[in-house]
Amino acid sequence: MLKRIAILLLGLGLIVTMTAAVMAADMGNERKGKYLFRKNCRACHQDGQSAPALNPDSKTQAQWERIFEKKKYEDFECAAEWVKLSDSDKADILAYVHGHAFDSPSPAKCK
Questions:
Q1: What is the per-residue pLDDT across 83-101, written as a single tens digit (0 to 9) for each?
Q2: What pLDDT is attached to residue 19?
Q3: CB–CB of 102/96 below 8 Å?
Q4: 55 close to 109: Cβ distance less than 8 angstroms
Q5: Three-state DSSP class for 83?
Q6: pLDDT band at 20, cuts 50/70/90?
Q7: Distance between CA atoms of 89 and 94, rounded to whole angstroms?
Q8: Are 91 and 58 within 8 A, CB to CB?
Q9: At 108, phi and psi to the nearest 5?
Q10: Are 85 and 36 in contact (CB under 8 A)?
Q11: What single DSSP character describes residue 49?
């Protein structure tokens, strides 16, 4: 009986771990996203530059999701820059801004 319970718990643990890994892979790499955000977005999106200041905490998580889901970045003045980014790079940027959005547990400005 104890063997069955142990095997069941081990199986459930593996399922939870695999599910979390798949969900994390879909979201992107937050660390790489921070680098890409700084490299590609901060040049124009800071005080005194051509575009309005923009930080991860400038929007809520839902607002960031809508921008990336509906590909609203294609309407930005910098659309040509977005075309150069791979889908993986865009997912990484989303992971960063989503993880540090205004309503996230750890909102942050990009410095």
A1: 899 999 999 999 999 999 9
A2: 61
A3: no
A4: yes
A5: helix
A6: low
A7: 9
A8: no
A9: -150, 145
A10: yes
A11: S
φ, ψ of residue 76 to 5 degrees: the values are -75, 160
Nearest Cα residue to 110 out of 48, 43, 62 = 43
DSSP state string for 86-97: -HHHHHHHHHHH
DSSP 3-state assignment of 104?
Answer: coil
The single-letter code of the amino acid at 56 is P
Token pair for 43: 């040049």
CA distance 86 to 32: 13
Q: Give, in order, the Cα–Cα distances in Å from 43 to each of 19, 37, 57.
A: 37, 9, 17
In the chain, how many H helices and how many E strands? 5, 0
Residue 64 near residue 98, CB atoms below 8 Å:
yes
